Amino acid sequence: MSTSAVEPGTRLAERFRLEDRVSESDGATLWKAIDEILARPVAVHTFAPDFPRVHEVVTAARAASRLTDPRLTQVFDAAEADGHAYVVSEWVTGETLTDLLASGPLEPERAAGLVAEAAEALKHAHESQLYHLCLRPSHLVWTTGNTVKVLGVAVDAALSGLTTDQPALDDAEGLGRLLYAGLTGHWPGDEEEGGLPAAPMIDGHFCSPRQVTAGVPGYLDTVTVRACLPESRKGQRPLTSPSDVAEALADVARPMPIPIAYPSTPAVASASHTEGLDIAHRQQLTVPRPPPAPRRPSNGGGSMLNRVLMTLVVLLVIAAVGVGAWTIGRSLGSPTTPETSDNSPSSSASASAEAQAVKPDKAQGFDPLGDGDEKPELAALAIDGKPGTLWKTEAYTSADLGRLKDGVGLLLDMGKSMQISDVVATLSDAPGATVELKVGDSPDLGSLKTVATEKNAAGKTTLTPEQAASGQYVLIWFTRVPADAGKFHGTIYEVVVHSPGSA
């Protein structure tokens, strides 16, 4: 297959089916494609026969595939053989920094939090001798899973033929420019970038963020100046690497979800040279609220009734205390002749012990029948105590997981073996999920015993073991997933594990 014959419907490596051409530049074409084996969207880059840097791009992609920081987009495959080449990477959905700035500068703390995450991610890339070199607002993404992603590490520089003798300094300056853009809505360059206007200048020098936007904290102004505005440093030590920028922003609050009601109609997305990017439009999550308590009458009759009820409550409490004291005294008076009852076995005390919520040590997406992981970067959101955050499976083409596997789920590590009273999982409101509760002392699928099953599950679902169950690992296992926006996903907003005590 020659590269010139690449068109929608083409299959690469017998698994990646090209669907939509996203962008094309200088002989390199970015596609949205489907990984037919794992039933998920991916970004695929193909090249014209005369593209001059194919070998450099494939080499950079293979090196980038070894990066493990979840804030850097994953490279899944890269090949160069038989006259054609391609690069396959993660398809990222969310909003770029350009999108976030469409209505003006961000809150200073939010802008700093986004760039702090990017700086830490690039710090890890630099430790592997991999660099970005061309950071732009389109490379910084706030994903639909409420995480930061940096697009294009190593690969975008190879696509553009960029090289440098000081990669750490170049990436530090790039991070500084992203922070400047987030704080001001302007780009500190000679021309507009991604729709952002060029930063204003005084005496041939870019204005500092505080000179452009009111309310920028002084320390963030200083960090920006130290990173990318050498003319304004006035003797301050420059930030010369992503590690320096990460350290300077180490104490800023990390970004939280923006409470936006997303429209239901998808919009066309821009993309990095390398990775795919959708702007995901979601309807705002609706969390059920308890009904308001009934209002009590405010007339005099209500007040009299309240006094009467209060008097009765006090009398009942006094009576209960008296009975309890009499019972204890009777027990103490007859220590050698404990009472027995055929209807009250000695195990009733432990059986009636009230179960307590136990927070898992960690959570992970669990796909032992596929690639091992299932949206691992979102797993912690299912145990963070916030009903608006969520973990969800990959998208599948049918309720039976596209017939690709028998199940997929969320694995909780409780830290130690314990008895499991029940597990309450808040699922999506869409009906059709089949969920199993598996418990055991090993994270291997074969070692986990199915103790409860719920069919056609939706919303808040309580999974109660039919018999006593204990173990260190708790697995919420989807064998069928409900329809979701034209695809099929399993979704968990929150999980609460109840236990009467350690096993």
List descriptors.
five-stranded antiparallel beta sheet, globular, alpha+beta, Protein kinase family protein, 23 strands, 10 helices
Layout of helices and strands:
Layout: E1 11-12, E2 16-25, E3 28-35, E4 40-47, H1 54-64, E5 75-81, E6 84-96, H2 97-100, H3 108-127, E7 140-143, E8 148-150, H4 155-160, H5 167-184, E9 201-202, E10 205-206, H6 209-212, H7 218-228, H8 242-248, E11 276-278, H9 300-333, H10 348-351, E12 356-358, E13 362-366, E14 391-392, E15 408-419, E16 422-427, E17 433-440, E18 449-457, E19 460-463, E20 470-480, E21 483-484, E22 487-488, E23 491-499
Parallel strand pairs: 6-11
Antiparallel strand pairs: 1-2, 2-3, 3-4, 4-6, 5-6, 6-7, 7-8, 9-10, 12-23, 13-15, 14-23, 15-20, 16-19, 16-23, 17-18, 17-20, 21-22
Give the N-terminus to C-terminus distance in angstroms.
Answer: 60 Å
Residue fraction in strands: 25-35%
Mean pLDDT: 84
Largest sheet composition: 9 strands, mixed
Coarse structural class: alpha+beta
Choose one word for the global shape: globular
* Portion in helices: 10-25%
Overall radius of gyration? 29 Å
Low-confidence stretches: 259-271, 279-303, 330-352
The counted number of beta strands is 23
- Counting DSSP H or I runs of 4 or more residues, the number of helices is 10
